[in-house]
Q: What sequence folds into this?
């Protein structure tokens, strides 16, 4: 293993005897088996027990590493941070081992035979890429706990056994293997791309296009019968729309893992046959959920299979930047919207609002190139461009879709581009290049060149030609600047109402004397019963001339009325609408986008 920053040129420039002596390639290993212990004793300590056994045919050193990140979550989190009690043994006697760096171990076998390596994994992170436990539950990603031999490639099979309580349940997309609680994968990429739920949680399944779609919800009570029926209905519609784009569902089954809590970050992480979503308990019925499910589901094709050549194959030891996250995430965001409207989960107003959101977020961000923004999640930029490749990439996807449909008289679309690239790159075992992407976009648009478009708007910093392109689809946008009151608090919601969990120093709430722990009763004359009440509050007092508003809070047994200074902040809201009397062709394009049809 060579750290990515040590390019060949740098390594040559500073030849180091230490580096030269360090063996970075493992001796070959075979018959790889993992065992993960998630029983009530281990999860009670917020720990997973992990072991790996394998066969060696000599005493040559075995070099094992644990990933630094999980694909889809483009941040180095260094899973080795959470490991402890590392040990190696052969035939019951300890083996010598040493660390080569913070995530790599070298083990020296005594003879040919079976070696066992074990460690404990701290599973207490509230993060969908990292393991987490509760008193009756464990969640983990394979990247957290599955060591791999360095320099041996990733195309070797492995088996996984889960040790747990007899009455606990296991959910994973990984293929089952003979025996109890055994699973198998034919290569390391698949092995680490099937998260596990172990313990007590709600589980249900339905069929869509001859595939089993499963729900695994924690805690179990979060999957009420009404929520189950509604979620299945949404998922069925969304998958039907996505499958129509690619012509196939490339998984044997698909699992929607969802954990709800009062402290989670909110959001999802995609996998090849599943998604792991985290939802605030107060938002279990929120209107944004189908869009989240749709986005993560579309990733089962776009990024888990069809992806930029920069990320094929994945490396796990270090960052793997690409300028193409605007396609992997942004275009997926666009299809997140398309999946819900084409499936009939949402209507055209919701679709227009979604496009309006992309326009407003792009307009409100620094004018940097989307391909530059795509490189930066690894460094968490502070210039306001973090995540810009989502809305700006989505907007570019939308504009390309219109231009392709316009250029081909609506005989082709972005769907054709996605499907052709899926067939011509992923199915042929490679990632797509710039030439693949722009070549396919140009062909779909009837032979139009997109060189200038890419130069100016994707790799360049010019404002996107939103109005002129949207007109080709009989659509227009209007942006309004709102002056909204802002409180400067964070809250958590439960059945008894909203509690203030944090107060920003210097914010309006702080000046009013609101404290963490207060229960919010009303703001001005808006009763605060759930998160939606904040929208009502902002709308009601948009541009208000008032300088203070009464705030009623419950503090312990007291009910207090405090005076909130009104502080207005600017927010851009973009409204997208149809152009009345648009041409027949523009209407065909607009309908084609929303219905997933051509002609
Ligand atoms: Zn995504």
A:
């Amino acid at each position: 293993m060579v750290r990515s920053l040590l390019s060949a040129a740098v390594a040559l420039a500073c030849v180091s005897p230490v580096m030269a002596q360090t063996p970075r390639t493992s001796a070959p290993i075979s018959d790889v088996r993992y065992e993960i212990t998630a029983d009530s004793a281990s999860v009670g300590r917020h720990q997973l027990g992990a072991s790996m056994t394998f066969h060696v045919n000599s005493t040559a050193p075995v070099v094992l590493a644990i990933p630094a990140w999980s694909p889809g979550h483009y941040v180095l989190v260094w899973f080795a941070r959470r490991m402890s009690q590392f040990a190696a043994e052969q035939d019951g006697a300890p083996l010598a081992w040493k660390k080569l760096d913070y995530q790599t171990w070298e083990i020296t076998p005594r003879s040919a035979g079976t070696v066992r390596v074990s460690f404990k994994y701290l599973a207490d992170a509230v993060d969908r890429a990292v393991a987490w436990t509760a008193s009756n539950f464990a969640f983990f990603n394979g990247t957290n706990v599955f060591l791999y031999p360095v320099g041996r490639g990733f195309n070797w099979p492995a088996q996984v056994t889960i040790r747990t309580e007899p009455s606990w349940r296991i959910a994973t997309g990984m293929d089952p293997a003979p025996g109890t609680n055994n699973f198998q994968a034919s290569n390391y990429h698949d092995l680490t791309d099937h998260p596990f739920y172990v313990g007590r949680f709600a589980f249900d399944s339905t069929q869509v296009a001859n595939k089993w779609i499963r729900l695994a919800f924690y805690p179990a009570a979060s999957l009420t019968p009404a929520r189950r029926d509604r979620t299945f209905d949404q998922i069925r519609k969304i998958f039907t729309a996505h499958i129509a784009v690619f012509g196939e569902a490339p998984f044997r089954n698909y699992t929607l893992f969802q954990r709800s809590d009062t402290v989670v970050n909110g959001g999802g992480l995609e996998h090849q046959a599943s998604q792991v979503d985290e939802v605030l308990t107060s938002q279990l019925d929120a209107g944004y959920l189908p869009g989240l499910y749709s986005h993560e589901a579309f990733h089962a094709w776009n990024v888990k299979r069809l992806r930029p050549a920069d990320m094929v194959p994945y490396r796990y030891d270090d960052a793997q930047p690409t300028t193409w996250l605007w396609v992997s995430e942004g275009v997926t965001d666009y299809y997140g919207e398309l999946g819900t409207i084409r499936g009939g989960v949402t209507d055209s107003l919701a679709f227009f609002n979604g496009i309006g959101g992309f326009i407003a977020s792009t307009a409100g961000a620094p004018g940097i190139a989307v391909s530059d923004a795509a490189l930066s999640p690894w460094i968490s930029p502070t210039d306001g461009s973090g995540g810009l490749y989502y809305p700006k990439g989505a907007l570019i996807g939308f504009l390309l879709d219109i231009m392709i449909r316009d250029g081909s008289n609506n005989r082709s679309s972005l769907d054709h581009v996605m499907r052709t690239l899926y067939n011509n790159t992923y199915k042929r075992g490679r990632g797509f290049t710039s030439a693949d992407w722009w070549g396919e976009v140009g062909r779909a648009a009837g032979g139009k060149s997109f060189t200038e478009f890419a130069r100016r708007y994707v790799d360049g910093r010019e404002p996107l030609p939103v109005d002129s392109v949207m007109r080709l689809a009989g659509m227009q946008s209007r942006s309004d600047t709102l002056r909204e009151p802002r409180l400067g608090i964070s809250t958590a919601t439960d059945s008894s109402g909203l509690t203030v969990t944090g107060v920003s120093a210097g914010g309006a709430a702080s000046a009013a004397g609101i404290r963490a722990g207060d229960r919010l009763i009303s703001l001005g004359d808006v009763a605060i019963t759930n998160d939606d009440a904040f929208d009502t509050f902002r709308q009601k007092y948009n541009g208000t001339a008032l300088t203070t508003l009464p705030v009623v809070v419950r503090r312990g047994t007291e009910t207090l009325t405090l005076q909130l200074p009104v502080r207005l902040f600017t927010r851009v809201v973009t409204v997208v609408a149809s152009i009345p009397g648009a041409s027949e062709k523009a209407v065909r394009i607009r309908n084609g986008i929303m219905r997933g049809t051509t002609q």
In short: Residues 282 and 493 are 5 Å apart (CA to CA). The first helix runs from residue 8 to 13. Residues 1-21 have pLDDT under 50 and may be disordered.
